[in-house]
Design brief:
CATH architecture: 3-Layer(aba) Sandwich
Helix content: 25-40%
Oligomer: single chain
Order of helices and strands: EHEEEHEHEHEEHEHHEHEHHEE
Number of strands: 13
Number of helices: 10
CATH topology: Rossmann fold
Strand content: 15-25%
CATH class: Alpha Beta
Strand order of the largest sheet: 10-9-8-11-12-7-6-1-2-5-13
Structural class: alpha/beta
Shape: globular
Radius of gyration: 21 Å
Length: 303
């Protein structure tokens, strides 16, 4: 059984509410989890003879972070303030504080800057726990006050790997909690053959086998309380995932990714990268929980 006891919410939006915050608040309330608000500030040079200093003031920053929260029924809150590169510090803080989930906003980048990625993408590659990434101009399923979760359709991209099985477990948990439709999609790396009226025998066999595996992946009792839909498609995985999510008005995409493959292909854009950048809804990148492997000596915490 998956449990959410500690949710880490990193943000740079101190002057106005960040659109991803209602997701963190709603999930913390729903699961009785502690909400850890995190603000990372990179050190900036002021003048050559005085060295480096940080741009933040701890007390003021902590007050601003707390001011973003809804006034009523706020879950247990801890404020974490840190200096350094957010892409490095956020995964480190998640490991140090045993976070079960990171919730963060991703700013969609222009095409010219796409290869550089975003902080959210960098965090997804090294995080010690799953990461829920939201975007601007997407299909929302949490009210702005963080009081209502309207999760109706969940898509799990399943390639029968251990990573995909973890994504399925999270999707199944959320579908059960909110009585949502659970969609399982498997993409075969076959390019459609123009002009053929029938599917080649080898492709048809692969599709039937994949369909049977998708059906067997779902526990029998799931069908008693949840509507489950299976889909097999052919083509490039990220394109088929995005197309399916748009066609079916999916509220949440669950993806399992391995750290090595995700990171090594980052320069050219992995399937996960592309889904993160173009998804019409929030994306949950599931990663196995990893324990803290060495002591950390630096952390700023204001309870």
């Amino acid at each position: 059984m998956i449990q959410l006891k500690r949710i880490l919410y990193p943000t740079t939006a101190l002057q106005q509410s960040d659109e991803a915050l209602p997701y963190a608040v709603a999930l913390a309330r729903a699961y009785g989890a502690e909400l850890m608000l995190c603000h990372c500030t990179e050190a900036v040079p002021i003048v050559a003879d005085t060295g480096w200093m940080t741009a933040r003031q701890d007390v003021r920053t902590a007050a601003q972070l707390r001011g973003l929260l809804p006034a009523c029924d706020t879950p247990a809150v801890k404020v974490l303030l840190e200096d350094g590169d957010p892409a490095i510090e956020i995964p480190r803080l998640a490991a140090e504080h045993n976070a079960d989930l990171i919730v963060m906003r991703s700013r969609r980048r222009p095409r010219a800057a796409a290869l550089l990625g975003s902080t959210a993408e960098a965090v997804c590659r090294t995080a010690p726990c799953p990461v829920l990434v939201t975007h601007e101009a997407e299909r929302d399923w949490v009210k702005s006050d963080g009081n209502t979760i309207a999760l109706r359709r969940i898509l799990v991209a399943h390639d029968f790997s251990n990573d995909a099985e973890l994504a399925f477990n999270y999707g199944l948990m959320l579908a059960q909690e909110y009585q949502a439709e659970l969609h399982l999609l498997h993409v075969l790396p076959f390019a459609p053959v123009p002009g053929l009226a029938t599917i080649p025998e080898n492709q048809a066999s692969a599709m039937h086998q994949a369909a049977r595996r998708l059906q067997s992946a779902v526990p029998a009792e799931t069908y008693l309380w949840c509507e489950v839909k299976h889909a097999i498609r052919c083509g490039q995985p990220y394109r088929e995932i995005l197309t399916y999510a748009d066609e079916q008005q999916i509220d949440l995409i669950c993806l399992g990714v391995s750290g090595a493959g995700f990171a090594m292909r980052a320069l050219f854009g992995s399937n996960a990268d592309r889904v993160l950048r173009q998804a019409p809804c929030p994306v949950l990148i599931t990663r196995p929980l990893k324990p803290l492997v060495k002591p950390f000596v630096k952390t700023g915490e204001i309870s």
